[in-house]
């Protein structure tokens, strides 16, 4: 069971909460965003009330008491999914990122010879 908990910690660290929020379609500015449950807000719902804590990789809404948590919670709450489905989606996202890095970083670049202007 401890191994599974470690795997979840690694998965959580590999998924930046800001990047996941943007990918989900949440409007983010800096470390703040527009809550996805604005119908429950007392005010107009246009002001950013979601706060992202980058150091802890967590979020919370200052108006919705039940909106907040980890990157897993963000996916569950935004999409209405069970935790296991959110974990699988985040794992797939990390696998895709790793495959993309291997394809596009460091391969296919030709090293050009240095130009010698002394001739």
From TrEMBL:
InterPro entries assigned to the protein according to its UniProt record, in alphabetical order: DNA_primase_Znf_CHC2 (IPR036977)
Domain of life: Bacteria
One Gene Ontology MF term: zinc ion binding
UniProt-listed GO biological process terms: DNA replication
Protein's name in the database: Zinc finger CHC2-type domain-containing protein
Origin species: Desulfomonile tiedjei
């Amino acid at each position: 069971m401890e191994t599974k908990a470690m795997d979840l910690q690694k998965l959580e660290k590999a998924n930046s909460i800001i990047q996941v929020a943007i990918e989900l379609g949440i409007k983010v500015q800096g470390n703040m965003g527009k809550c996805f449950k604005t119908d429950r807000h007392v005010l107009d719902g246009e002001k950013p009330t979601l706060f992202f804590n980058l150091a802890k990789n967590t979020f919370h809404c200052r108006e919705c008491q039940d909106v907040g948590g980890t990157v897993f919670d963000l996916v569950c709450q935004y999409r209405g999914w069970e935790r296991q489905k959110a974990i699988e989606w985040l794992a797939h996202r990390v696998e895709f990122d790793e495959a993309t890095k291997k394809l596009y970083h460091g391969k296919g670049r030709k090293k050009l010879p240095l130009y010698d202007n002394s001739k």
